[in-house]
Amino acid sequence: MAETEQARTLRTEHMFLNLGPQHPGTHGVLRVVLELDGEVVVNAVPHIGYLHRGYEKIGEDRTFHQYIPYTDRLDYLAPLSNNTAYVMAVEKLLDIEVPERTKYIRVICCELARISAHLLGMGIMALDLGAFTVFLWGFREREKLYDIFEKLTGTRLTTSYMRVGGVVMDLYDGFGEDVRTFLNDFPSAVDEMEALLTRNRIWVDRCKGVGVISGEDAVQYGLTGPNLRASGVEHDLRKANPYLVYDRFDFDVPVGTNGDSLDRYLVRMEEMRQSARVVEQALNQLPAGPVNADMPKIVLPTKGKVLTSMEELIHQFKLMSQGFEPPVGEVYSAIENPKGELGFYIVSDGEPKAYRMRIRSPSMINLQAFPHMVRGGMLADAIAIIGSMDLVMGEVDK
């Protein structure tokens, strides 16, 4: 009887804590309502939508050419990848085959975007857990890439470089030399960052065994990308369903074993090295030739022609404002984005804009597993887990 009375006296009520939406550890405007028993997380309920902009509905109100800039703002750490995923879906609807050179250019852009996104993702995860130096070193490498992106596309962040049927313009003179210069120094930069973290006792204690999710559960939740592969599931669209020219390159798919925050970090670090391998091979194999399909009724004219020919200027204006008439049908096309499988589902009724558009944004799907991963952990573990998942709220909310 005394024990029962003592237990009743010591019993405490659960506390509810709002983590976010204005909190640096949530990587954007994410609100998570945590149910806590002391410092132990009993349950977690993500609340999303603070950055919702109606992107899928906008896709039904803009012509296919007009919608490309909107894709920059999904995973805004890898706009070149987002551009590629969207235009490939439209090209699949139109049954367009882009030139060989364009395929290689897209691969190079997507892999450089993967490196850039992982550098920031892992840098911010390190910053969340107190490793400020790694964050700065990651930004140093990203600045080199952003200089290349700016010379290639004219801007650093919202690139809008891909076009239906090709790209805005060919690679600038000296692009290969700039990228090779970056690749020569990059492996040692990754080694530097890993030297600070991978065997650091504090880092390992904060990440190992934290946010564990098994391969079976990861598949059930629909995880893709590094979050899935860290749980031991070797699934990468570049290997499982090769697109563009990925089947011509030799690269490995890093896979974890424990499915914890440490494995998610390690997988991304190795993925950056593998992306560098792909880029180097693509540069070596890069063929000459045109960068846009010869389909003037669909593909926009080059900037040079628009600036020097009234007819081409009028043609571009009509294509951008009025669009083109695609065949009736529906398609789904996806690529391996830095966050996972980014897919576009487009339904066409023959009008110059999509009748229905849906976006499979990997960050939104991955976020579903967060309550499962954090339940039973400590309050401080929630920050480590969110960091290891590498979420981007622009992609979650759409």
Give structural notes.
The protein has 398 residues and is mainly alpha-helical. It has a single domain, classed as Cytochrome-c3 Hydrogenase, chain B. 50% of the residues lie in helices and 12% in strands. It contains 18 helices and 8 strands. The strands form 3 sheets. Strands 1-2-3 form a 3-stranded antiparallel beta sheet. The longest helix has 29 residues, at 100-128.
List the helices and strands and how they pair.
Layout lengths: L1 H9 L4 E5 L11 E7 L2 E8 L7 H4 L9 H4 L7 H16 L5 H29 L3 H22 L8 E2 L2 E2 L7 H23 L3 H7 L7 H7 L4 H4 L7 H4 L20 H25 L17 H6 L1 H13 L6 E9 L2 E9 L7 E5 L1 H6 L2 H5 L4 H11 L3 H5 L1
Antiparallel strand pairs: 1-2, 2-3, 4-5, 6-7, 7-8
Helix pairs in contact: 4-5, 5-6, 5-12, 5-17, 6-7, 7-12, 12-17
* Rg (C-alpha, Å): 23 Å
What is the H level of CATH, i.e. the homologous superfamily? Cytochrome-c3 Hydrogenase, chain B
The low-confidence parts are none
CATH architectural group: Orthogonal Bundle
| Quantity of strands, as a count | 8
Overall average residue pLDDT = 92
- Number of helices in the DSSP assignment: 18
Report the β-strand fraction as a percent range: 5-15%
Helix content: 40-55%
Given the C-alpha coordinates, what overall shape results? globular
Order of helices and strands: HEEEHHHHHEEHHHHHHHHEEEHHHH
SS class: mainly alpha
Overall CATH class:
Mainly Alpha
